[in-house]
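Workshop exercise sheet. Pairs work together: one partner reads the sequence aloud, the other fills in the structure field after running the prediction. Swap roles for the next sheet.
Pair: D.N. / O.F.
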Amino acid sequence: MRPRLACAVAALVLGAGVAAAGCGFGEGEKSEGEATLTVTRDYGSESMHEVTIADPTEADTVIRVLDREAEITTRYGGGFVQSIDGLEGKIAGDRSLDWFFFVNGIESDRGSADVAVRAGDRIWWDYRDWTDALRTPVVLGSWPEPFAQEAEGDAANPVKVECDGGREACELVAERLADAGAEATIVDGDARPDRKAMRVLVGPWSELRDDGLAANLAEHPQMSGVFARFAGDDDPELLALNERAQPAARLGPGAGLVAGMRRGVDPPTLVVTGTDPEGVRAAVELLDEDSLANHYAVAVADGEELALPVVEAESP
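Structure field:
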């Protein structure tokens, strides 16, 4: 069948979903530069695709770009990705597994057919068990996003490092952000929060646990969106959790954590913390692409980095 006729037939049968998106109707203006597409499974523990998209056009939606690079199936009129390369969303026993996607480190609240890809975007699809945490609003696996804000057309939010203990650590965090393309201003941790700013909370857990957002790191991942939890007051432990939100490792003195969090539709927050000041300094060292790529969050103890959640078994 000739391509144009095939596209017309596909559009009639499947509607305006993937079929029409793959047929090249009206590509529109180009966005000059590169975007990236990453496809992984099990919280980024296994890579499936790493692709660069040169000069994406106005017609390049997230699902259209994915459809060009992988074999996919969809549901609900083409707007919901059911499978990629045969790996299918399902319920297996008491576990729920599906595909989720992030745009520049932020979990999308729109369907993949409704999100355009722009130069500078980092698109990440991940297949995961979401039984114990339906939402993970901010992930760090597309570092330096979401803080560099490199996507074309974005109005950049200010980035403010809220310093809650250890000026040296805060200055190092600001340097790491600057190296990644995110200009940050250091402010005192007691300063009135700027609701338009991306927050970077820096300090030991004993200082951050009173923050309204960071306090969720003492709760279940369903509350925090982070597969780690602090326990104890005087000598806190950092519990590294597995994909079932169960403790996989108990990290004591000198343990650090880097994680992304978000309240509602507020700008994302980066948390750089630890069980003590030594843990904070260890966490600062994680702020680079080598340590964070394709990870939701990362802990560190005794010089060993630990991707979070700690994936203990491949999804069924």
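Discussion prompt: The radius of gyration is 20 Å. What would you look at next?
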